[in-house]
Design a protein that fits this description.
418 residues, 6-stranded mixed sheet
Length: 418
């Protein structure tokens, strides 16, 4: 299956931070420079697993666990806290609310306090809380069915009254936790243990087992911390590579990729580093092709064959999409990418998808006959496997183009009939 690899690369690597920038915007878009300028100038200290959790300076407390919690600033030793970041526009955040309410009720007598923190204006959150809960989950639906009667849906205000729901428009709590930990998506929960240290960071729907172990003092913070810190390092390196790519500092990009391949940690972390390095190398080639084609002509012969074959084919397909989308490309560049991609083909077991990509590149370069010959090979290679209608259809399209009279002749024929 082919996809828009350029879009995937750019959004997953260059713009990962924009996922959370949306939460910094009242309009639900990416944060503007003006909004960024309103933030405190001093960057918060980096947070990771084992860090001491800072106080929470929350501006508006809309619910307090049924009135059982007084708004607070400092986290008390001996208690467990869940600080969760959410927003009214975030559907996964809203979907997590019934589960969070259930967890607070389950751990109410075990010293656990859950505080959900938005950074939206008070009026926005208050308006959201007036809405009816969209889906209370299977258990609630089953109970309503058993009762054989229509049960009035609660509002989000009623649902979230079970725990502490807040909003902090100046973003100070988000800066101190979420941003300091380098997180880039919500909902995101921080579990703070009895010693005041951050025990875990992740999606609130995945925290049940961890929370139980933190409460029971059986959670292995050090083991999780090692993995988490390696992940933070990986993210920082990805950001460095992305910025270098934007500045056309390709040597630095490749240096970061090499560092990622030598990342220390568990086999899982090392695998993530290897995958990230491959994504970065793919990204820089795509950016060269799009923005610096002279450099691409120099780099592609050496760099393209080093790529994983699947990624190489995806990048080649991105070149097709870029060309079709109007990005100017020389025939020389298109022919080079076509040749390098064709070199990936195993003569004994040709891949129809790769051949299809080559045919598209050859056609884009203006070599219709070569494109037809290559696409015929792609169709022939389907004989021993599942058919692909798109590949077969493209061959027919190419042959139809070949059979059509030249444009000048067609115009003359049309004029003669008038």
């Amino acid at each position: 299956m082919k996809s828009s690899w350029l879009i995937l690369l750019l959004f997953s690597v260059l713009f990962t931070w924009s996922l959370t920038a949306r939460a910094d915007s009242d309009e639900g878009g990416v944060a503007t420079a003006e909004k960024a300028a309103d933030k405190p100038k001093d960057e918060p200290a980096e947070m990771t697993i084992g860090s001491l959790a800072p106080p929470i300076d929350i501006e508006h407390w809309l619910s307090t666990a049924g009135g059982t919690v007084e708004p607070f600033h400092k986290l008390e030793p001996g208690k467990v806290y869940v600080i969760e970041f959410w927003a009214t526009w975030c559907m996964p955040c809203v979907a997590s609310m019934p589960h969070i309410a259930q967890l607070q009720q389950e751990y109410a007598d075990k010293g656990v306090t859950i505080v959900s923190v938005s950074d939206e204006p008070l009026e926005t959150v208050e308006g959201f809380l007036e809405r009816e809960v969209m889906n209370m989950g299977e258990q609630a639906e089953d109970e309503a069915a058993d009762a054989e009667e229509e049960v009035a849906k609660p509002t989000y205000a009623e649902l979230t009254d079970a725990y502490c729901l807040t909003t902090d428009p100046d973003g100070s709590v988000k800066d101190a936790y979420f941003s300091a930990a380098g997180q880039n998506g919500i909902p995101c929960a921080f579990i703070v243990g009895k010693t005041g240290q951050v025990e875990w960071i992740g999606h609130p729907m995945a925290m049940d087992d961890v929370l139980a172990k933190v409460v029971d003092d059986t959670w292995d913070r050090e083991a999780f911390g090692e993995e988490f810190r390696a992940s933070q390092q990986l993210n920082r390196m990805m950001m460095t590579a992305a910025m270098a790519a934007r500045q056309k500092d390709y040597d630095k990009v490749y240096a970061v990729a090499e560092e990622l391949r030598n990342l220390k940690g568990s086999p899982e972390v090392q695998a993530q580093g290897e995958a990230a390095a491959a994504r970065i190398e793919g990204l820089v080639l795509v950016m060269m092709i799009q923005n610096d084609q002279d450099e691409a002509l120099k780099q592609l012969p050496a760099k393209f064959p080093q790529l994983d074959p699947e990624m190489a084919n995806q990048i080649a397909w991105t070149v097709v999409q870029m060309h079709d989308g109007g990005v100017p490309m020389t025939a020389e560049l298109l022919q080079l990418v076509a040749k390098l991609t064709e070199d990936l083909v195993d003569a004994d077991s040709p891949d129809a998808n790769v051949l299809d990509t080559v045919a598209h590149l050859q056609h884009a370069a203006g070599d219709l006959e070569a494109a037809i010959a290559t696409q015929q090979r792609a169709v022939d290679s389907l004989a021993d496997g599942p058919s692909d209608d798109a590949i077969v259809a493209y061959l027919a399209e190419l042959k139809e183009e070949q059979a059509a009279p030249p444009a000048d002749d067609a115009d003359a024929d049309e004029a003669a009939t008038k």
